[in-house]
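Quick start: what a row looks like.
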Amino acid sequence: MFKKISYIFLTLMPGSVLANQPRDWQLGFQKAASQGMEDIVWFHDYMLLPIITAITVFVLFLLLYTCVRYRASRNKVASTTSHNTLVEVLWTLIPCLILIVMAVPSFKVLYSQDTIPKADVTIKAVGYQWYWGYEYPDENIIFDSYMVDEKDLKENQPRLLTVDNEIFVPVNKVIKVMITANDVLHAWALPSFGVKRDAIPGRINETWFKADRTGTFYGQCSELCGIKHAFMPITVNVVSENEYNQWLEEAKVKFAKEDLDTNIKIAKQIKEIK
């Protein structure tokens, strides 16, 4: 019943959370597109919120009860009570039990995020000021991904989220993402997949996701990295396996790593001649 009411409420809200990108006046999470994100949403909605709400209501009740029951007009003589052993034991044990109850599903979510299954597709993401570079090491594909300026946007392309070169991944496949940075700290984040990892120069962090539906999903750099921090969007297209294979064939021609290496060598030779 509670789940149905929540669903109706969220769908009637301005900027419904049932989208693959942030909306104006949005409250709550974007709709989950992976099991990992579904676990996070469940933990938030059915574990954290009820416990936080219950604690808040209970503490508020105690405050109001104390103000009324022990007001000065009703208690002419002040109490000389110094302590209460039972109360002290209870307010120590109950929070401990609450933390234990919260810890069990929390550890499960964290463990599933950090345990990477055998990958079907591996992508390396490199943060730069202020764009992302991507590499498919098993396919010899490498390219940069810049945000499209507002004046160059086409119809229905979201502002500050559209990029010139998007990532393509197959649906229902394990995608491992190796994340690093070339200059300062960045963070690669995709809310619909429940993914966020820091991009640290000189270090590679790993994460993974398995998209359970097709569509275009958006994320952004989530670590303050300079004046254009807000202009580092992430766009992931989740497509069928056939569409992914078709994209691979085109990308191997358009973004061939060998061509990039050749261009770098030529540039170095020209620089040495000068």
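That is the whole record. The helical segments are 2-12, 35-69, 85-114, 241-254, 257-273. Residues 35 and 43 are 12 Å apart (CA to CA).
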